[in-house]
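Please, structure for the following, as tokens.
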Amino acid sequence: MGRVYNIGIIKGDGIGPEIIEEAIRVLDAVCVKSNIHIKYEEFLLGGAAIDATGVPLPEETIKGVAKCDAVLFGAIGGPKWDNLERHLRPETGLLGLRKAMGTYANLRPATVYDELINASSLKPRIIEGVDLMVVRELTGGIYFGQPREILEDKAYNTMVYTKEEVKRIAKVAFDIAMKRDKKLCSVDKANVLEVSQFWRDIVIEMAKDYPEVELTHMYVDNAAMQLIRNPKQFDVILTGNIFGDILSDAASMLSGSIGLLPSASTGSGVGLFEPIHGSAPDIAGQGIANPIATIASASMMLRYALGENEAADKIDNAIKRVLKDGYRTGDLSAFDAKEVCATTEMGSLIADYASR
């Protein structure tokens, strides 16, 4: 019968349902070729969950995803829910799901496709050959720190990291660096933040276990500048939650479109795989969303959660072939497009190439 996996599906809001459908189409195509069988189960999160149940993260979703081998997720949020109290907003549901799943490590690759080198706002000589990985701590730091409060004349949040939280995310980054070019840059703000100095001291201590890895340190403001000035100097970037949130979005634009880049959230529980972009409610339902980031997220799911590297390679190579042959969604239509594709057309093309 082949290998069987249970995959949770969270379509979410906005363009989420559209791009998830194309990722499923590609997964089904490559799995037939690779003798893999996937059973899908859909769960609610975000605005769709609020509309159906009144809360952004239903208990049924938490219980359901815990039984899965991995979860493929689209996007959440939109202006419809922006005025709700914070604990009822879609984004709070996503933070809660990450925490419940133990997905403390967010892996965000930024790769420049040769076929789209002119899509970036940076000069080709700056970005040619860029292939880096941002490893972002995902369930600690200022987004989760207590206490936090809005008062009449001030508001405050607390940035907190424990030694164990830093050690476990650093281990992920060091292990990934060992499989790549053995270069790791830890990004912090140790010159002004005690929590960052704490972070840096722990990373330095852990480096003793990885003598082959070249460890460097960089302040986050300089790292943001260096990502634009000379991104090829980076291989693996390790950083905390809020810094990683900002830097990974900045790195995404090296490729020319946020619609191209996937992410994986892994850790002690079930992995969550999603595009780094948002729900784009302004284009939802128009059939013009770029599904490549979600399809690439499905590839990361095969590779990092299921260990199906051959199937993941088929998807990655299919994406490259589609781009090489000149097929583009609307966001990339100005860059050497032979044919501009709708969302479903792009998904069908990648599925066809992946199944060959």
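The mean pLDDT is 95. The CA atoms of residues 83 and 89 lie 8 Å apart.
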